[in-house]
Amino acid sequence: MGPDPATRRVALDIAREMLRQLPTRWRPRGVGEQLPHRVRADGARPPFRERAFGTVGALGNILGFAAEGSDPFFDALLTLLAPGGTLLLEVAPGPGERSRYLHRLPPGTVTRLFRSPSRAVALRVGREGYAAEPRRRKIPGEFRRIDPVELSGQLEGLGFQVEEVMAVAPALGPEAGRIEAIRNDAKAWDHLLEVEEAIGRAPERWPNAAAVLLAATAPAEPGAPPERSGRPSEG
What we know:
alpha/beta, Rossmann fold
């Protein structure tokens, strides 16, 4: 079956170039799925009616890059979300980290390793621990790091139910050569995803992660959007 024709997907960005690149980056989930409707606008003042969407996502650490403008942006996200809808946020708490074990192995060896059961790989990764990436110099007012634990608490204070928090690729990280080698082996790729998800759910992996995904469900009761309980906290 194709997608529900009543489903409306919208991609909003203030940058024309990001919207132009969407067709080359979008991966359809099913046969006949169409590209999202592209809208160029300010996320802090979206041109949509309130509570219009069942799912609202802010990816690419938009809240962090919005810096001092993150307050109105966060307000707008909550305003767009329908009662009982899903809010998906991506934030950058830290500079990133990598598995010491995996990053001392060449790409071919890493691929062969991930053909093993994912639990065995996770145990090996855990034994040697993780190395944090060096922190880059921060330009005041340009970027904020947001603590996902504090953000979860703020959302819960607004009546949201936090469903899941997960660090993105905490073991392998953004190593293009290793990622490409594993992607060409279906079994190794499946095991890599299992390992990354299992490790990424551990709260101790969140503070240094370069990217953390947070999913939360809005209160089911209809009514006015919840009042703010303060801006997302900086880590």
